[in-house]
Design goal:
heterodimer; A: about 220 residues; alpha/beta; Rossmann fold; 2 domains; 5-stranded parallel β-sheet; B: about 375 residues; alpha+beta; Heat Shock Protein 90; 5-stranded mixed β-sheet; WalR-like (chain A); transcription (chain A); DNA-binding (chain A); transcription regulation (chain A)
Chain lengths: ~220, ~375
């Protein structure tokens, strides 16, 4: 059972999402909150698998809520997915930097919502890889100069794994591509994440771009 | 009445110098014991006219220059040895209006003509004639009049420029404010539409789950809200597009066309009219329209060639993109989602955007972006 927590300041949107998610047999909404402050408190209390959090909220916004969840070692198994009204923008990137696993546009189709929640809960693949890459392409134009952020500590195999993560491949697919066992692929990805201080795969990709490990395609 | 009084005051100011100059000239002539009979009467008339014509010096500086010059030569020839004061005023006015070359040419002609007029008036000695001509139009006074006119012209131009840049800044602020309002409006709409859409989604699925047929009305709400949020999102993306760094503008369009060529589209750019500097918001919008149109052409059109046109008209910039794709004439206009959003931006700038199949085949995107180039 995937346990989901909703944080959004629009009650009608929350109730809509809750109804859609609860219709599924393998998903359960355990709690909901109207702002980031209350949301983070409920996350600590319920330890959900996935938190859906609106980016823009009063009191404590989604980015700050993500940051607080990411900063708490007790919540390392909680995957944060941010909700946005728009396709992608700098706020979404900010949320990914803060440690979100991915983002969803609020008006997505039901199937996409369910898929996103399941992928986020497993934590073994990037959410909406093509959109995530477009986002990063667009907003991370240049690697921050002088910020190598521990990239030089990555082994060749780990770098290779990071590139495949950025392409949206899951651990199993990475294993296949690199002709290694899935456990080994997972180890490479996890090592790369901990060396770069990334909490989720999306953050790993952002960091990889910002440190120049991956180069954005020309727009 | 205030208006009446100010009109009177304006005409007093307008006529003060011409009348004063005319009076000065006539009085000087009278004081010099010039007879007011026969040819003398005509000379008095010329003196008066040369003063009064200064009333049009502001509107018709060249005319005033010619009339005052001819009058001066005329009364000199009639034997009235009086300084060409009105002509000096006309030189000042002409230089102030920026007619420097004409003023210089006219003054050279005057310097040559005045001694001849003195000779015609009966002065026997050539040297005396030249002295009289010089007295009538002192070179130093001439230069002083021209310099005064030039100084004022430059001061006025600087003031104009300052005024123009103030206006441009005000217009830019207004443009930005309009875009900001549009953003806010669409922002809050998007929130509400999201709610409608999610709730419709829930209702549809609950009723499916219950095994009942889903009511038509519900499906209509669902599809309308989907469409609405799709459009809103495109609009918002267009409205929020200002954050691109560095900002793209009209000057980046050739690069866009070049890129389309690199992708195998036979794209050409034609620029019509004299390019001028456009406001940043307009340039950005023009760039995005061309970008979206070329993207759409590449995406659906089955087109092999495209023509991008930028027309610099006095009051607007016309942007057109034509392709030779297979869009059916008379068919419904199906702009890409990007153009859908762009329309909002164009509207916020007070312009219009049309995207439709052409009668002779192919698709045409046409945007008129008004430019307020007052002054």
């Amino acid at each position: 059972m995937i346990r989901v927590l909703l944080i959004d300041d629009q009650p009608l949107l929350r109730s809509g999402f809750r109804a859609l998610l609860n219709l599924e047999d393998d998903i359960e909404v355990v709690a909901e909150a109207g702002d980031g402050e209350q949301g983070v408190r409920l996350v600590r209390e319920h330890l959900p698998d996935v938190v859906l959090v609106d980016i823009r909220m009063p009191v404590v916004d989604g980015i700050e809520a993500t940051r607080r969840i990411a900063a708490d070692p007790a919540l390392s198994a909680v995957h944060v997915v941010v909700l946005t009204n728009y396709g992608f923008d700098e706020h979404v990137l900010e949320a990914l930097r803060a440690g979100a696993a991915g983002f969803l546009v609020k008006d997505i189709e039901r199937e996409d919502l369910l898929h996103a929640v399941r992928v986020a809960a497993r934590g073994d693949a990037l959410l909406a890889p093509s959109i995530t890459r477009r986002l990063i392409d667009r907003y991370v134009a240049q690697p921050t100069l002088g910020n190598t952020g521990g990239v030089e500590g990555l082994t060749g195999r780990e770098r290779e794994a990071v590139v495949l993560v950025a392409r949206g491949l899951s651990n199993d697919e990475i294993a296949e591509r690199m002709a290694i066992r899935p456990m080994t692929a997972k180890t490479h990805v996890n090592r790369a994440m901990s060396k770069l201080g990334a909490r989720d795969r999306a953050q790993l990709v952002v960091l990889a771009y910002e440190t120049g490990l991956l180069v954005p395609r020309n727009r | 009445m205030n208006i009446g009084r100010s009109t009177v005051w304006a005409s007093v100011r307008h006529w003060a110098i011409p009348v004063a100059v005319a009076a000065l000239l006539v009085v000087t002539a009278a004081a010099g014991d010039h007879p007011a009979t026969g040819i003398g009467a005509a000379a008095y008339a010329l003196l008066a006219v040369s003063g009064l014509v200064l009333a049009v010096a502001r509107r018709a500086p060249v005319l005033a220059l010619i009339v005052t010059g001819l009058c001066a030569v005329g009364y000199q020839a009639a034997g009235f040895d009086i300084a060409a004061v009105a002509y000096l005023f006309a030189v000042y006015a002409a230089v102030r209006a920026g007619r420097r070359v004409i003023a210089a040419a006219a003054s050279l002609a005057m310097i040559a003509a005045l001694p001849l007029a003195a000779l015609a008036s009966g002065v026997q000695d050539t040297g005396d004639a030249f002295t009289q001509g010089r007295n009538a139009l002192e070179l130093a006074w001439l230069i002083a009049a021209a310099a005064a006119g030039e100084a004022l012209r430059q001061a006025e131009r600087r003031a104009d420029e300052a005024e123009r840049s103030r206006e441009a800044a005000a217009r830019r602020r207004a443009d930005e404010e309009r875009l900001h309002i549009a953003r806010e409006l669409h922002d809050s709409l998007t929130h509400q539409i999201s709610v409608i859409k999610v709730q419709a989604e829930v209702a549809v699925h609950l009723s499916r789950k219950a095994g009942a047929p889903v009511p038509e009305a519900l499906l209509a709400i669902q599809s309308a809200s989907r469409e609405a949020s799709r459009e809103l999102r495109a609009t918002l993306e267009a409205l929020r597009d200002d954050d691109t760094r560095p900002p793209r503008g009209i000057g980046d369009i050739p690069e866009l066309v070049e890129r389309a060529r690199a992708l195998g589209l036979d794209a050409t750019l034609s620029i019509d009219g004299e390019p001028y500097t456009v406001p940043e918001a307009l340039g950005r919008t023009a760039y995005r329209i061309v970008q979206e149109a070329l993207t759409n052409t590449a995406r659906h059109g089955a087109a092999t060639s495209a023509t991008v046109g930028i027309g610099y008209r006095p009051d607007l910039v016309a942007v057109t993109v034509d392709d030779d794709g297979e869009a059916a004439p008379g068919g419904p206009p199906v702009p890409g989602i990007g153009l859908l959003g762009m329309r909002e931006r164009v509207t916020a700038l007070g312009g219009s955007l049309h995207a439709r199949p052409r009668d002779d085949g192919g698709f045409r995107v046409e945007a008129d972006l008004p430019v307020d180039r007052a002054a």
